[in-house]
Amino acid sequence: MAEEVKAAPPATFKVTIDNITIDVKPGTSILNAARQIGGDVTPPAMCYYSKLEGSGGKCRTCLVEVAAGSTADPRPMPKLVASCRTNVMDGMIVKNMTSEKVPDARAGVVEFLLLNHPLDCPICDQAGECHLQDLGYDHGKAGTRYQFSRRTFAREDIGPYIQLHMTRCILCYRCTYVADQITDKRVHGIVDRGDHAAISTYISKAIDNDFSGNMIDVCPVGALTDKTFRFKNRVWFTKPVDAHRNCENPKCCGKATLWLRGDEVFRVTARKDEWGEVQSYDGKVGWICNTCRFDKKETKDWTIEGVTNISRHSVIGANKYKVLDVPGETVSKVMGGRAPKLLMDIHNVSGVNNPDIDLSDLQRPAHSGDFKKDPEPGLESKN
Amino acid sequence: MQALTNRVKEVDRKPLSFMEKMYLPAILKGMFITFSHIFKKKPTINYPEKKRPFSPVFRGMQILNRDEEGRENCTACGLCAVACPAEAITMEAAERQPGEEHLYREEKYAAKYEINMLRCIFCGLCEEACPKDAIYLSESFAPADYQRKQFVYNKSELLIPNPKEDPEAYKKALGNRAKPTTNA
Q: Strand pairing partners for A162?
């Protein structure tokens, strides 16, 4: 057997996913081959992150059925395989959407991911851009059969900018890979095992690395959130625009998405691609540094390029102009230069979005005292 | 020209007949209908003195609900505002501080919550969207006023009376439709 002559592997492997055939390089995983096709064929992934080496294989949401292993050995694989960790073979036939077993298995995986995940989406800042929300919506079941109390943790501050809600964590390990591969030294990781496993900094050591903020972007759920944005606004009420600045940090890409309310910058994130991962520019991943992310909360710090393209099915694009410039008023033109008589200026009556209170200046969530400066302007003018 | 559907009706452009040109028969016919209504039962009522019962699905002015301990249910999730087709609802959230646990049920709460009643169309989608049992359309109208600014309702006008401090007013505000099992 040892002398068996092996034919040289072909330059590209032909793989068929959901009846769509594509040629990919040897060594490509099924998930990445499916991403090259794109669309609904792509299995969802919660833990795999193409920009982080070694990620994947933990959450099992990307399970697919392999109907034929390869041309040389066309037997089907006996069990569903994790597509992020299984490489393609020449002549492999994969079933994702077309499989009968996959939706059922995925619903089971989602049920397990949600066993300990709290249903606090109304409070969570990730809601609206949460991958677990999308996954639960697309593949989950309406109810849970779990009858025991969920594991809970006290919320923890990881450094001055990052809030950790361990109760929401699904243990995808992405953030620890970010800390390992992007920042200089890792001071946080997973402590304990099994059901007790938890992300933490060792002896609550603060993370003060320049790139620690990227953990927020890779977190698929709301376990790691931006403390400077905490509770400021819902994601879908802020308007995302693409902007860049010349960052002094040589490792920082300087290209970011600003999340605006009016002219206030509520949040800065790295730009995301269609898979929800941080975008690459010329082969380099566009991670941004903490200065860009947490300290540059003014529109004058940035050069705004245009409105971020948001999928029309996403709630983030709801009720927003798709252009930067709001169409001008035409009333005075029609009335021969005479301005319309305003019957009510909403800022005289409303306490919301008070021009005197700049929430984006706060480096922490708003508290009851922050609104006391001008208690209910509506009440005064009304009475 | 070929019609797109078979429901097209040609406009009748024939000249008026002699009877139509006289106009009087048509006027008399209309007058007869008008006078006949004098002898029919009045469909109107004198409103402030007499009130009609509300339909069980009546949607009136919004209230913000409290739980049985008097804490505000609203957590400023923004689902009512995003569901609102008239964009009448705005809010601003804040984090609950230690010592405020008796005021707000969740760690996030609505520091400001406003409904612009000039915009509200009483569709009830906010009530449907609410995951926290916090907003309900009650059995009352928004009272009339002479000024527009009175119709931007803030939290002090929308919140239901506290069941601990003012149980009578709370019960009244719950209305007739509230199920006895929910909220005390």
A: A158, A226
Residue B19, phi then psi, degrees to nearest 5: -60, -40
- pLDDT tens figures, B107-116: 999 999 999 9
Q: Give, in order, the Cα–Cα distances in Å from A139 to each of A19, A107, A277.
A: 21, 5, 20
Report in angstroms the alpha-carbon separations of A42 from A38, A333, B95.
Answer: 6, 52, 39
CA distance B135 to A22: 52
Cα A43 to Cα A134: distance, rounded to the nearest angstrom: 13
> Which of A168, A344, A373, A376 should one mutate to test binding to chain B, selecting the residue with the greatest count of B CBs within 10 A?
A344
Answer yes or no: are the C-beta atoms of A258 and A243 closer than 8 Å.
Answer: yes
Where is average pLDDT lowest: A65-79, A241-255, A330-344? A330-344
Residue A88 lies in a domain: yes
Counted domains in chain A: 4
Q: Are residues A224 and A237 in the same domain?
A: no
The tokens for B161 are 């009376």
Task: Give pTM, 2 decimals.
Answer: 0.83
CB contact under 8 A, A382 and B76: no
The verdict on a CB contact (< 8 Å) between A122 and B107 is no
Q: For residue A364, give the H/E element and its range.
A: none
CATH no., domain B62-174? 3.30.70.3270
B82 touches chain A (CB under 8 A): yes
- Testing the interface with B: which of A352, A370, A373, A381 to mutate, by most B Cβ within 10 A? A352
A13-69: pLDDT as tens digits: 999 999 999 999 999 999 999 999 988 899 999 999 999 988 999 999 999 999 999
How far apart are the C-alpha atoms of A357 and A351, rounded to whole Å? 10
Closest CA to A209 of A155, A277, A160: A160
Are A292 and A347 in a shared domain?
Answer: no
